[in-house]
Design goal:
single chain, 279 residues, alpha+beta, Diaminopimelate Epimerase, Chain A, domain 1, 2 domains, 17-stranded mixed β-sheet, 4 helices, 38% strand, globular, binds ligand LBFN2T5F
Length: 279
């Protein structure tokens, strides 16, 4: 069976998008996703994203496999790409600029703006240790500026769940972090039973953060949307940044707001179509 796909990226965080609207079961297995994501022997991507029929009254469902075949609950850059993909699939029959998307991390609402950027209502951040999940503190407590031993060093970490789990550390200079060495040690640390995405943040100004990320199931990526949202929330919780800030990633900037009105997090950034193909 031939399967059509479209390659998209959000700030260099790249995905293979598949039209899966006629079935609730992804047409590609996690093992096949690993091969498709391979940058030498496959198409090359950080993950495979499926546009499935909506559940619980939503317009569509998004599922995603990481490049290691694991299934995360949410993907920020991916959901912007999905919005662009759905708009393309709907073509002239499209009658709205925003979608309610069911994900394993909750309902997300991407809106395609007149300038082509996509603004996503990412919902409420979850902060309790049991919601991250982490065993760093008791289940009902927040993990804000807690010490964590990783690779013989004590790191000051804050944990935020944006649909998926994140552990954020503020540092003087993100360039000095040996991400490929330390990233896997955070990801597989026993205090994170579902593994973790790890962000290192340098505060340039209260409204400008620089970020590098080691993603669970994908390693170093050029950008992570949920990670940028989680990092801004961590910055507010630790008094380091404002509620609205630009987060600069290796692939480019995202605009993030943790609304003081409705406490929801909003992310705005690009979604770029690269090419289409057939498997
Ligand atoms: N790059 C994504 C996050 C993808 C999922 C992540 N690797 C996980 O396992 O949670 C983003 O833009 O949010």
């Amino acid at each position: 069976m031939a399967i059509e796909f479209t390659k998209y990226h959000g700030l260099g965080n790249d995905f293979i998008l598949i039209d899966n609207r006629s079935s609730s079961v992804p047409v590609v297995t996690p093992e096949q996703a690993i091969n498709l994501c391979d940058r030498h022997f496959g198409i090359g991507a950080d993950g495979v994203i499926f546009a499935l029929p909506g559940e619980n009254g939503t317009d569509y469902t998004m599922r995603i496999f990481n490049s290691d075949g694991s299934e995360p609950e949410m993907c920020g850059n991916g959901i912007r790409c999905l919005a662009g993909f759905l708009a393309d699939l709907e073509g002239e029959s499209r009658n709205k600029d925003s979608y309610r998307i069911h994900t394993l991390g909750g309902v997300m609402i991407p809106q395609i703006l007149p300038n082509g950027q996509v603004k996503v209502d990412m919902g409420l951040p979850r902060l309790l240790a049991g919601e991250i999940p982490t065993t760093l503190t008791p289940n009902e407590e927040k993990v804000i500026s807690q010490p964590l031993e990783v690779a013989g060093q004590t790191w000051d970490v804050t944990c935020v769940n944006m649909g998926n789990p994140h552990c954020i550390t503020f540092v003087e200079d993100i360039a000095a972090i040996e991400l490929e060495t330390i990233g896997p040690k955070f990801e597989h640390h026993p205090v994170f039973p579902q593994r973790i995405n790890t962000e290192f943040i340098q505060v340039v100004r209260r409204d400008y953060l620089k970020m590098r990320v080691w993603e669970r199931g994908a390693g170093i990526t050029l950008a992570c949307g949920t990670g940028a949202c989680a990092s801004l929330v961590a910055g507010v919780l630790t008094g380091k940044c404002d509620h609205i800030a630009t987060v600069e990633l290796p692939g480019g900037p995202l605009e993030i707001e943790w609304s003081e009105v409705d406490q929801r997090v909003y992310m705005t950034g690009p979604a770029e179509k690269v090419f289409t193909g057939k498997l």
